[in-house]
Amino acid sequence: MSQRSSSTFENECQKPFALSSVFRPGLFEGRVAIVTGGGTGIGKAIAKELLFLGCTVVIASRKKDRLASGAEEIRTWLTHTGQQATLHVLQCNIRNEEEVKSLISTTVLTYGKLDFLINNGGGQFISNTAEIRLKGWNAVVETNLTGTFLMCREAYNQWMKHHGGVIVNMAMDMWKGSPLMGHSGAARAGVVNLTKTLGVEWAQSNVRVNCVAPGSSIVSPTAAANYGDLNVFDGIGATIPMKRTGTVEEVSSAVCFLLSPGASFITGETIRIDGGQSFYTTPTYSLPDSKPTDKYSWQSCFDAEGPEAAKSKL
Ligand SMILES: CCCCCCCCC/C=C/C(=O)SCCNC(=O)CCNC(=O)[C@H](O)C(C)(C)COP(=O)(O)OP(=O)(O)OC[C@H]1O[C@@H](n2cnc3c(N)ncnc32)[C@H](O)[C@@H]1OP(=O)(O)O
Ligand SMILES: NC(=O)C1=CN([C@@H]2O[C@H](COP(=O)(O)OP(=O)(O)OC[C@H]3O[C@@H](n4cnc5c(N)ncnc54)[C@H](OP(=O)(O)O)[C@@H]3O)[C@@H](O)[C@H]2O)C=CC1
Q1: Who lines ligand 1 at CB under 6 A?
Q2: DSSP 3-state assignment of 256?
Q3: Contact at 8 Å (CB) between 237 and 203?
Q4: pLDDT digits (tens, 9 = 90+) for 167-223
Q5: How far apart are the C-alpha atoms of 42 and 174, rounded to whole Å?
Q6: What's the pTM?
Q7: Which domains does the chain possess?
Q8: Coiled-coil annotation: which residues (predicted)?
Q9: Ligand 1 centre from 139 Cα, in Å?
Q10: Residue whose CA is at the smallest distance from ligand 2 atom 47
């Protein structure tokens, strides 16, 4: 098997897994990327595909154990396939300004550059908006919106402003509002808007900024565990026009496209990766039973106020 052809092997848990890419081998050779949340789920898939394409990858998130097990899986794969690409692990909470500054500066000092930033790290908890405490609201907004802002700003100021680069942010299916995820929907809508702003402001520095918006349908065990229900994705596929859930690889390939020279005239854009879900309905929220709400019409006003009150206005 050639070094860069697709490969299949069994990892230490004896679960078979394969890695391949629709992009040409060596596409990202000599490039350096940071993937936040790169130890799990979608971020891990992005990290793997970038490595497969020859990129040096720094994965960063809060929890050392998650990073370590993700890195071990990726390194096992690198060893089995004979890939030469470099994986680096750094701990960073994207809500912490000093940690973000240090993540970027360490990467630039170690590898001499930063070509790609993938702001994948993020998340939320499920709650009616009326029951979200301020601390919980702030935690989600700081993670998804402020964290993305800090990462973008530092990547730009410390490197990309003078050398160019590509940034890909992460949104979600918040296009029609986000029942039970109001905090995250608001934050991700902010990310979509920030992406447009930065696409304009930083174009002159040869920095492209885009975003991907997966539906509530990208199957990842760590994502499911976050909701305390490993079956949380069951049943969602049937409600999606494409009649299935999505894969982490389907997000990764869109990210790789946006990073590639093939997307060199695309900036400020958000690509939906949701099998048409957001154009159809929001399947994760069922309306509670209730009577119809009050309707407004001139007749209903007239009826409510009574003929005398209405006449007095004439
Ligand atoms: C739609 C239908 C289904 C559909 C479900 C289908 C979903 C599929 C789509 C998937 C979408 C995804 O994004 S999948 C990605 C999932 N992965 C993640 O979300 C991982 C990252 N998330 C997190 O770490 C957390 O959710 C996040 C809140 C952001 C950060 O937590 P931290 O503990 O670090 O935050 P802290 O600063 O300590 O603050 C925690 C406060 O947050 C609040 N809080 C935290 N968890 C809470 C909870 N479960 N319930 C209430 N409140 C909570 C409390 O107020 C906490 O304070 P106290 O009161 O003091 O405790
Ligand atoms: N799966 C899906 O269907 C969808 C996912 N998304 C988004 O895609 C991204 C990846 O999700 P997915 O892989 O599915 O789920 P995961 O729960 O596996 O990934 C979330 C990742 O974000 C990291 N992270 C969370 N908070 C922080 C923080 N403050 N600083 C640094 N890293 C952080 C986590 O690592 P650690 O805990 O170590 O910090 C983890 O690796 C998230 O932003 C998610 O919200 C959006 C729409 C749908």
Answers
A1: 123-127, 133, 135-136, 139-140, 143, 172, 180-181, 216, 223, 226-227, 232, 284-285
A2: helix
A3: no
A4: 999 999 999 999 999 999 999 999 999 999 999 999 999 999 999 999 999 999 999
A5: 18
A6: 0.94
A7: 19-282 (3.40.50.720)
A8: none
A9: 8
A10: 172
